[in-house]
Design goal:
Shape: globular
Number of strands: 8
Strand content: 25-35%
Order of helices and strands: HEEEEHEEEEH
Helix content: 25-40%
Strand order of the largest sheet: 1-7-8-4-3-2
Radius of gyration: 23 Å
Number of domains: 1
Length: 178
């Protein structure tokens, strides 16, 4: 009987130690930027909950773009750029998306690659530790995805925050049926 009790106690202690030794590290999610190569939708006809199209931008200075519009999805800003194909979006549009997203984005000044709507791609972020007015001009869009023939810039102060929004929007578009 004593041997059986020792086994049960050993088993319970092993289970407790196994389940109590959990890691506090968060799982890293890897987002793909170029997705759904055959996806095609007329964004002007999309009627999703929490989605609203905004202004049209003049695309004369944006190579091969067919349409660029601002939008709101779940109270966050998007910029949707439509191209003839995904290969056009990658070849002609991705460099422009890269230039206005992320920590090293160029969102003001003479070095902005596509000036149309440039003020809409930046936001005023208060400087840390200051009580005075003033801010730093930061990129509104932390990252982007290329979904089918569209480049979608998504709001966020970090790439992870932006990609989370991009993927929520992607999932909504994929499940959308008019």
């Amino acid at each position: 009987m004593k041997k059986k009790n020792k086994f049960i106690i050993f088993f319970l202690l092993a289970c407790i130690s196994l389940f109590s030794c959990s890691s506090n590290e968060e799982e890293v999610i890897v987002y793909e930027k170029i997705i759904e190569s055959s996806f095609d939708i007329d964004i002007k006809n999309v009627n999703l909950k929490g989605f609203k199209l905004g202004k049209n931008y003049d695309i004369n200075e944006l190579p091969k773009a067919e349409l660029v519009m601002s939008a709101i999805f779940n109270k966050k800003d998007l910029e949707i750029r439509k191209y003839l194909s995904q290969s056009d979006a990658i070849e002609f549009g991705e460099i422009y998306a890269q230039s206005v997203t992320g920590n090293d984005a160029v969102v003001s000044g003479d070095d902005v690659m596509w000036k149309e709507g440039a003020k809409d791609r930046r936001k005023c972020v208060p400087r840390a530790g200051t009580s005075e007015s003033g801010c730093d001009q930061k990129a509104r869009f932390g990252d982007y995805i290329i979904m089918g023939n569209m480049i979608i810039l998504c709001e966020g102060l970090s790439s992870e925050e932006s990609m989370t929004l991009c993927y929520e929007f992607k999932d909504s578009l994929l499940s959308y049926s008019p």
